[in-house]
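In the laboratory, one determines a bound structure by crystallizing the protein with its ligand and collecting diffraction data. In a computational setting the workflow is compressed into a single prediction: the sequence and the ligand go in, and a structural description comes out. We illustrate the idea with manganese (II) ion.
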Amino acid sequence: MKDTEPVYLVRRIGDTLIAADETFSQFYQIEPAEELETRPIPQLDGIDPPDEPYFSLKPLVGQDSPHLYMLGIPYSGGSGMEGSKVAGFEQSLRAESWKKVMYPALTQSRISGLYDIGSGQRLLESVMMQDLGTCQTDDTDSYSKGLNSALVYTEREEALLCCIGGDHSITYSILKSILSRSEARIILVQFDAHHDCGVDAIHQSEMHHANFVRHLLTEDGIAAVVQIGLRGLRSVDQMYKHPKLVQIPAEQMTPERVRTTLLDIQHKFQAEAAYLSFDLDCLDPGSFPYVDFPISGGPSWFNTRNCVVAALESSLPYVGFDMVEGQEAESDERIPGQYEMALRMLTYMMDGMHRNYLRHGKDALRVSQALEGTRR
Ligand SMILES: [Mn+2]
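The predicted complex, in structure-token form:
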């Protein structure tokens, strides 16, 4: 039997470093080294770095640069809910994630990842990622400076950006910003209980979280919008049809239907890339009740997760993703148990995004070689 050896860096106590073996059965005190220092968080214009990052994950200087960055967008100015608490969600979810710490590997560019006990899967094991922090908002409640600097930075690094909202109008701003620098024709893959095409036929000039899709559909760079999980009653003037708008209602959503629909749409509209947006009200309120506009009778958590995974197995390369419309918890210390559902979904989204990235990324080969684990 092979002797155990230190694999993960688990603690820093002053200058002392504590490592653990693969199964966390042996602990070691190891010598400090330059490559074991914490990788600095990129200091970007308009972004406050986190006090404690998502998953308390602190990648090391000696590891490959991240493939995936996370950014909080604490914006609720596009919400129709008076006094909405969705701006604080990015920090509440961050606080929830501190209960699921991930550790950097000592000699390989990988991290410990997370087990999903339910599915028996180990997720995010090979994903290098870093939390950039939270967008600042200025006097006019604008977060565009931070969002743009994060998008420019991640594009230059050939990495993906995961944005945590905020209300759903941030998806519009993110896609507009991506489209302003890209020629690609993008499909928006949107998980949502609502169609976000407006609450009536008349008041549409101002873009907000309930009509941003109608505004996006006018963009040439948006090849199509595929909505998954829709349900509930609407009056006739609340319905909306558009040649580029494709809908899979909650009652009809299956991984197979998602797969075939995305393939059809990709060919029909000659799309070259995709973007994933997950509105937490897509989940049944029994799974995740902390949204402003819940609609009961939603899909099961498992079906939703399987459909998200299927969407990310698309042959299209994804250019980014977001999670939106969750409500802030009372405080970092009092995060309700259901928040884990949002975190689990985010984990599957990040894992699926990374698999998609490895299939499509320009540097896919380089990344996968690094994952083989060349020892320094
Ligand atoms: Mn929405």
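The radius of gyration is 21 Å. Keep in mind that any predicted model is a hypothesis to be tested, not a measurement.
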